[in-house]
Amino acid sequence: MAAARVRNGGRPTLEEVAARAGVGRGTASRVINGSPRVSEATREAVEAAVAELGYVPNRAARALAGNRTDAIALVVPEPETRFFAEPYFSAIVRGVGAALADTDMQLLLTLAGNDRERRRLAQYLTAHRVDGVLLVAVHADDPLPELLEQLGMPCVISGARHANEPLASVDSDNFDGARAAVEHLITRGRRSVATITGRLEVYGAQRRLDGYRAALAAAGLPPDERLIAPADFTEEGGARAMRELLARRPHLDAVFAASDVMAAGARQVLREADRRIPEDVALIGFDDSVVARHMHPALTSVRQPIEEMGRRMAQLLLEEIAGRVGEERPTVVLPTELVVRDSS
Amino acid sequence: MAAARVRNGGRPTLEEVAARAGVGRGTASRVINGSPRVSEATREAVEAAVAELGYVPNRAARALAGNRTDAIALVVPEPETRFFAEPYFSAIVRGVGAALADTDMQLLLTLAGNDRERRRLAQYLTAHRVDGVLLVAVHADDPLPELLEQLGMPCVISGARHANEPLASVDSDNFDGARAAVEHLITRGRRSVATITGRLEVYGAQRRLDGYRAALAAAGLPPDERLIAPADFTEEGGARAMRELLARRPHLDAVFAASDVMAAGARQVLREADRRIPEDVALIGFDDSVVARHMHPALTSVRQPIEEMGRRMAQLLLEEIAGRVGEERPTVVLPTELVVRDSS
DNA sequence: CAGTGTATTGGGAGCGCTCCCAAGACCGGG
DNA sequence: CCCGGTCTTGGGAGCGCTCCCAATACACTG
């Protein structure tokens, strides 16, 4: 048997709190929402009543009356397995959760399927009345951000999509992470440093390549396009790129891969080619994932502050919802950290 | 400037849909909720109006009037990093998301902190009026499940907490996964098979140990308690246990670790002791995580269908919310799969 | 043809809250 | 002592929806 339906799930209502405190409903509401226009004595009376009854506001009623929901959505593009995979997703969620812990904002998780679904999603997000949206791993050609913008829905994305990102965004410093990694290789005496890039349509991958170039230039090493092999963030792609590099420049002595997973693919090929790591070839990855820690030899890698990124995204969104003065959209870039292990 | 506040965010209301279709509000509601007591002609008229106006029901209003929310919460115990880590969390979420995709249920993510917060959480969950709760990685002594039960809140947990789990639960077949792993070792000629267990207060860890014992018994191998080393699911714990095992039984020729991470710790110790894997000692893990695939040699491991577990949890919860006839709580146990790689 | 049912419909009465207006309490200046 | 202001307060009017009751329309049955 289902339990008999009770008003408000058997919970006290604002009206009851007000009655108990001997005040009107409006006054009780004012206290609960922290309005300053309440006398001290009244405030205390209401707070006591709240505590005694264990009152918690009914969100649905609040949302309906107040035209807001105190909820934000985290939209995850489902097919984008790269992002769904370790370590991004859980770290982002943890950061967002931490930022929301003190608020009474709720976090709604939405898995967006294909592009058609994405279009409908915008409609749903407005209809379901979330106060804002966190978009993770959007492609440059994803229609969702613009749709949300048109609907006037506050929105923060992770990772700028290009140099002048119009939306509020939080990103790690891909350029400087790559630069520091390559600088580290050069400092340790490597002279022929190759790189395996991610998909260059992804702005972050492009920035990592820029950082690689900048480090070489800063060290006075001549650029060599044949030391640059494009890949796609996958292990197979990394292996393929490594084979190309070995064929083109057999005497390279270091490789900077734009992701740990690609570094894993490269390591496999290097092993098959009997190149010792790090004696013959130094190897650095990007992400500092579980893979890096458990690779043999343990992989030097660039750590992104992903949890912190989640936290900042949430903070930015909350500010935007609260109504930032509409200057240009803020772009937060967080520093990376080079974690040196045995592979370099 | 914030956009001027508009009724219902500028979206059409049920009233408008009804007017457009030339019917009453009640009738429109009936069509939208799929009531059978509507004539065919009326249904079509309302559906046309819905399509033309792009009507989407206002969730808050629905929740308030209907005393339900069409939302469920996924409660993640935050300090439990083991569970938050790869691969569980994202896989569970993916499964839950898939199960919810066809419904119009929303998924709420709640990170529960310490035990005190957990107590308050139960209150919040009822006040926030979710229709049900998905609990992952609950400890045997977590107060939350009982609290939810008392409040009459539908609830499904991942992983039974003990042999007679009173709550609806979804679990992988820990017993048979372990049994199959050890059987595989024995089949390949290993005769002195050790095991590194997880924390035995965790029911799943206990079951894996049971499976280990059952496999030995089935093969007619004598039980040897000194081949069993307890650990705690961590890498350091796995290493420590492995050292103990080597000291106690130097001639062991196989180890079944109850998690990949512990297997990684064990591998480190085996390497330091100059035992070759798999020539001298075969090694098997549990979870089939990224760690297993990237370990050297690649680790044979027991794969749990985690995404499927998420899916089943959501399905079970939906059934419970819909009002299953209250027989005993269902317990779903899903089969595991032994992924054989190079370490065995 | 009256009587009884069945299928379909409209709309009133809320759900618990926020917003806001008007009323009361109180203060000080003229 | 009266008047205009400020500070508090109560409670009406919704928010958009679901639930449910009563009304209507129609089809039978006896």
TrEMBL record, chains A, B:
InterPro entries reported for this sequence: HTH_LacI (IPR000843), LacI/GalR-like_sensor (IPR046335), Lambda_DNA-bd_dom_sf (IPR010982), Peripla_BP_I (IPR028082)
Domain HTH lacI-type: 12-66
Keyword Nuclease assigned: no
Key words, A-Z: DNA-binding, Transcription, Transcription regulation
Protein name (Swiss-Prot/TrEMBL): LacI family transcriptional regulator
Record organism: Streptomyces cyaneofuscatus
Organism taxonomic ancestry: Bacteria, Bacillati, Actinomycetota, Actinomycetes, Kitasatosporales
